[in-house]
Amino acid sequence: MPRAVDGASSGDGRDAGIFPPRRRFPPAPPGPRYAAGVMMKLVKTSIRLADGRELLYFDEREGIDRRARDTRDLAPAVTSSQIRCDPLSEEWVIIASHRQGRTYLPPADQCPLCPSREGRATEIPAADYDVVVFENRFPSLTSDPGQVADAGPFARRPGVGRCEVVCFTSDHGGALARLPVGRIRTVVEVWADRTLELGAMDGVEQVFPFENRGEEIGVTLHHPHGQIYAYPFVAPRTARQLDVARAHREASGECRTCSIVAAEAEGERVVATAPGWLAAVPFAARWPFEVHLYPTRHLPDLPALDDAERDGLAMLLKDVLGRFDALFDQPLPYMLICHQAPVRRDRDLAHAHLEAFSIRRTATKLKYLASSESGAGVFINDIAPEQAAELLRAATPRTGRTRR
């Protein structure tokens, strides 16, 4: 049945117990898992697809009939996900060999993310939609991955979690940057809603929304969409950032990210601002064009944003991503990611932020991650961050937009 998205939930702070020894932490003290935020009213309807996966419609208005059935003859998806711990770095790697057969760059008239039509059933049974979320048919992580055999001296676990696809619009030729601000605001709301619900699942330790855009990045579907991964561990970059934040707070009594926001606020690397938000190229940018979007208030995750901050994030996303496309007067391949606090630990340390970055360094050249970056973890950037910020400030976003 449809229901309004209008609040936050709290968790029980259970310890999933799957971290390698060096990353083992005690459970968080009793209390709410998430800070409550103000939710705009969306009509949220859950249905089941033909193979049993969940699909959620997020409608911006009431009274829409969502009773259309998935008419496809789909067998249940077979998954074999597991996570293995690298004994040298104590970082988890997801092994998901079943994903080799996933859909790869179909023509527009065979897109599985477009609405269904007469004679052509897709992943979305309805004839139109605002924003849709559904369980990935080829997930890296799943709620029931099965058991894995003991690996002797090595650590491996079932790949417990969830992978969701977020369709931003029913318009196949659209783009997140060209959506109206109101629709991007809906996407922000959906990210917050899914962060709450996925974070409440057993075994989930971190919720990670993201968008991959462009064949150069490796997308397998052109339709405007993002994904959300619910990890059974805290991601390595997040863990490292928390370690840095902890050391900085112990030395200074302050939040590391708050100090960065204050230092960048009037500097030459600022790209754009919006109410409650600052977008700047980082001082030590790894990518040719990289922008970090910071809330100016210290908060752990998207559900903690208040109504005005959610409005501001929608405006800033449209601004920054529009500048990306205006840089070379062509759609820029990019990755958009959201760093949030883990579900059960260090929530007071974390300062949520988003990052948008591109591998394109000129109109005709890409930045490849070669041996230094991929092997040693040492990035080499061909563009000075201050120059990148200047170019982005000068880029004027296009006025055209996706229809809805």
Describe it for me?
The protein is α+β, with helices and mostly antiparallel strands and 404 residues long. The chain has 2 domains: 3-235, HIT-like (HIT family, subunit A, 2-Layer Sandwich); 238-394, HIT-like (HIT family, subunit A), CATH 3.30.428. The protein is 20% helix and 20% strand. The protein contains 6 helices and 15 strands. The chain has a 12-stranded antiparallel beta sheet, with helices on both faces. It has a 3-stranded antiparallel beta sheet with strand order 5-4-7, with no helix packed on it. The longest helix has 21 residues, at 307-327. The protein starts with a strand and ends in a 10-residue tail after the last helix. Residues 6-39 have low confidence and may be disordered.
CATH topology of the largest domain: HIT family, subunit A
Could you estimate the helical fraction of the residues in percent? 10-25%
How many H/I helices? 6
Number of domains: 2
Q: What is the number of E strands?
A: 15
User: What is the overall shape?
Assistant: globular
What's the layout of helices and strands?
Blueprint: E1 3-4, E2 43-48, E3 54-59, E4 82-85, E5 92-95, E6 131-135, E7 156-158, E8 162-167, H1 181-199, E9 206-213, E10 225-231, H2 236-252, H3 256-264, E11 270-274, E12 277-280, E13 289-295, H4 307-327, E14 334-339, E15 353-358, H5 371-376, H6 385-394
Antiparallel strand pairs: 1-2, 2-3, 3-6, 4-5, 4-7, 6-8, 8-10, 9-10, 9-14, 11-12, 12-13, 13-15, 14-15
Please supply descriptive tags for the structure shown above.
single chain; 404 residues; alpha+beta; HIT family, subunit A; 2 domains; twelve-stranded antiparallel beta sheet; three-stranded antiparallel beta sheet; 15 strands; 20% helix; globular
